[in-house]
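Provenance and format

Records in this collection were gathered into a single text stream. Each protein contributes a sequence line and a C-alpha cell line. The two records reproduced below are adjacent in the stream.
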Amino acid sequence: ESGSLSIPGASAVSYPAVPQLSAEKKELTLDVDTLVNGINKTIFATADDELRPVMNGIYINLQPSSLTFVGTDAHKLVKYESETENDITASFILPKKPANLLKTVLLKEEDAITVSFDSKNAMFRLKSHTLVCRLIEGNYPNYNAVIPSNNPNKVLVDRIELVNGIKRVAVCSNPTTNLIRMDIADNRINLTAQDIDFSVSANETISCSYDGQPIEIGFKSTFLVEILSNMETPTVVIELADSTRAGVFKPVYDDKQTFSSLMLLMPMMINA
C-alpha cells in the first residue's frame, strides 16, 4: 500500500527442463500403499557410501507376480516383498532423497499411480504431482546370496520388551562399538553390555520361546533397535545359525499377509 519492492530475476532459459524418458521406457501402475510401505520399510537401511553409490538407494525389483524393495548398508539388510499383478520384469535403484519426497507426497494420494522409467530416469505420475528423478546407475549387489537359508535356531520374543531391554542395557556398552551380547538358552535371552574403560556393565534377562542349542551372539545395539523399531507386530522371530552368521528378523503375523518382510543384521565379534 505504501511501498514498492524491486528484486532481480533470472532468465527462465537456464532453468532445467524436465527430462524426457527414452523410447525403451517401461511403464506400470502401482498401488499407493504398496509403494509407501516398501519405501518406509527399507529406507532406514540404505547407506551413505560415496564409494558404493548403488547402496545409497532403494533397489526396486519387479517380477510378474511380485514387487521387491531392498535396502542395505552392508551391516543390515531389509527385504520387503509384496504380491502384485504386473507383467514386466525389470529393476531400478531409487535414490534416498526422491524416495523421501515421494513417501511424503504419496500420503495424500488415494488412486493407483503410474510409474515409468528407463535406464537413467524414473517418473512417478500422481493425481496433481509428477516427480521425475535420476536413478542410481550400476549393478545392485546380490542380496539373496547373503540371506542365510538354513537357520535351525528360531527365537520367538516380544518385540517391545526386547527393544526396551536393549535400550536399557546399551547405556553401559562401549560408545565406539555399541556391542551388546545375547546369550540365548532355556527360553531366556540374557542381554549383556560392558565398557571396560569405565568399569560399567549391565545385564538383563528377557523371556522368549526357544528350544534350540544355546547360542551366544553379539550385535550393534543401535542397529538392533533400528531394525526392531521398524517392525509393527507385537512378536518377532529371530532366526540364527551360529555366532558368526547373520541374524534374520521377521515379524510374526496372526494371519496370512500379501506381503513379507525380512531384516538381516550382521553380528559383531564378542571379545573373550
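Adjacent record:
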Amino acid sequence: MYTDIVDIRDFYDTSLGQVARRMIRRRLRELWPDVRGQIVLGIGYTTPYLRPFRDEAERVIALMPATQGVAFWPREGPGLVALADEAELPLPDMSVDRVLLVHGLEGTEQLRPMMREIWRVLAGGGRLLSVVPNRRGLWARADWTPFGHGFPYSPSQLKQVMRDTMFVPERTAHALFIPPVRSRVLLRSAPAWEEVGARWFKAFAGVTMVESSKQIFAGISRKAQPERRRLIVPMPGGTAAARRAGDPTGA
C-alpha cells in the first residue's frame, strides 16, 4: 500500500528528508552521470530526484500512482507530473530511455502489471533504476519516513524481482547510511556516514538501488518435433486374423 502523497511531500520538506534527498541523489548521479538527449520517466514519488536531469535530458516527466496521489511539480513553469494507473501507463511502446522508480516498488499492489508496463514503455537500450528500502537497514524500520512503509527488499530479492519481470540486473548501489534521526549535529555529518558506509557497511544501507536493462528475446526456438512412437492396434478377430495377415507371432 502506498504512503499518502501529502506525507511523502511533508517528509522531504524536513531537514531529515532534505538529507535523504541529497544522499540518494548523489548516488543516482554516479549511476547516471549523463542523460543528454534522452527521455527520463519517473514513476512513484520521484520529483525530489528528477530536478538535476531537467537541464540535461531531452525531456523529463513523472507519473504518480493513482492510489498514492499527485503533487504539482515543478513549482515554477508548466507541470511535468500526471496521475496514472501503474498497470496502464499512458505512454506509447518503447517511448522512454530511462525509468527511475522511487517510492513505487515497495508500495504497489500490482507488482507484475506495473513491471510489465515499464518493460513495454522502455526502449530497447534503456535502463531502469529501482530505489527501494533495504530490508536490513534502519530506515526500513523508521515508520516516520516513507522508507519505513511498504515491503522492503534485500539486494538479492530486488534482483530476483527484476529477473522475474524480464529485466537483467546490471549494477547495484547503496545509500542512506546515516541513522534516520532528526539530530542536526548528526545530519551535518551525513557525507561522512555515506563514505564510511559505502566502503564497509553496504549491507546496512537505508536504500538499495539496482540498475537493470530490458531483456529482449532474440528469437523463438524451433518447435521440437514430437517423437514418433510405434502404435499397436489390435486387429479384428484376434491372433488368427493376425496370422492370416502374415505375422507368425500374432503380436
